[in-house]
């Protein structure tokens, strides 16, 4: 969500060379560290967990976060880049809290239905969540005419109007998602989920044998790592290497001159287009596992680990592109 809006943030930090260069790295670090710490804490708070409450809380946090971001595009535009940077980091922190709560709650909630394909649906939803913000960003920029941008003095950079539409769209999606989940939870909870929720809350409504059968067992993280070490390391390397991708993507420009290039190849659209292709590939990979029987790869964890190492090849490939307008090796 924040990565696709990087052209707008570049405009807000244009008067600070340091923030303009490093703001995306700060966004990635704050987001990743916050999510990691929260997921680790939630993993140790399983017995008394209310997963629907975690989902609802995460959606409410998203509502507040994106509403404030939308308002910031029209209000307080005269504040210094340093103050806006502090505000942005607070929003990234809040959104990361919401992401951690939602991931933990949704996977546990879906598992309670006892239908494996629901988990695959969640993974596909994660991919769609990466694609939609990029599309919304591109559409919101293209919806603003060049005359409107000239009047606001932004030129080729992201306009406040398109950024407002972008964040407002995220707010609307969060609202409808919250409404849909509340309806699902109140009218369609599965019998299996009720059993898990009862055990999680420690409600003793059955005999001792039933309580022992439904009581949730807690497995230590170290035990899980020893059993899944290659797969765990593969996931770690995949995410660690991926952290470099947005840093390069927001610096890559079209080789066409900005003054003559079509609107789609100008920075305010070209950068989200790069993120769109990146997230579209991620979505395609998630969907492909349901059709190409790629899930059988988990039987060969060493091969999965090797494939994750090969992702390093993408880093030098980025250097062949037009990074910061220095020219592309491949044109």
**Poorly predicted regions:** 150-158, 190-200, 202-214
Amino- and carboxy-terminal Cα gap:
29 Å
What pattern of helices and strands is seen along the backbone? HHHHHHHHHHHHHHH
Helix share, percent: 55-70%
Q: What share of residues are in beta strands?
A: under 5%
In round numbers, the mean pLDDT is: 79
- The Cα radius of gyration reads 22 Å
- Structural class call reads mainly alpha
What does the overall shape look like? Answer: globular
Q: How many E strands?
A: 0
Number of helix segments? 15
Major sheet attributes: none
Describe the structure.
- With 331 residues, this protein is mainly alpha-helical.
- Helix 2 (17-43) packs parallel to helix 4, helix 3 (51-72) runs antiparallel to helix 7 and helix 5 (116-142) packs antiparallel against helix 13 (267-288).
- The model is unreliable at 150-158, 190-200 and 202-214 (pLDDT under 50).
- It has 15 helices and no strands.
- It is globular.
- 69% of the residues lie in helices and 0% in strands.
- The protein has helices at 6-12, 17-43, 51-72, 81-111, 116-142, 146-152, 160-187, 191-200, 208-214, 221-227, 229-242, 245-249, 267-288, 301-309, 314-318.
- It starts with 5 loop residues before the first helix and ends in a 13-residue tail after the last helix.
Task: Pick out its properties.
331 residues, 15 helices, 69% helix, globular
